[in-house]
Amino acid sequence: MTMEKKVNIMVVDDEEIVRASLTSWLEEDGYQVEAVESGRKALERLPERNWDLMLVDLKMPGMDGIQLMDEVHKVSPEMLVIIMTAYATVDTAVKAMKKGAYDYFVKPFNPDDISLTIRKIVDHHKLVQENLFLRKELKKQYKLRDMISKNEKMLEIFDLARTVAKSSSTVLIQGESGTGKELLARAIHDESPRMDAPFISVSCASLTESLLESELFGHEKGAFTGATVLNRGKLELAQDGTLFLDEIGDISLKLQMDLLRVLEQKEFRRVGGSELIPINSRIIAATNRDLTAAIEEERFRADLYYRLNVISIHIPPLRERREDIPLLVDHFIEKFNIEMGKEIRGISEGAMRILMGNDWPGNARELRNVIERAVVVAKGNIVTESDISLPSTSSDANHRTKSLEEIEKAHIEVVLNQNQWNIVRSAHALGIDRVTLYNKIKKFGLKKEEVVPKG
Question: Which candidate, 4, 35, 1, 31, places its Cα nearest to that of 21?
Answer without folding.
Answer: 35
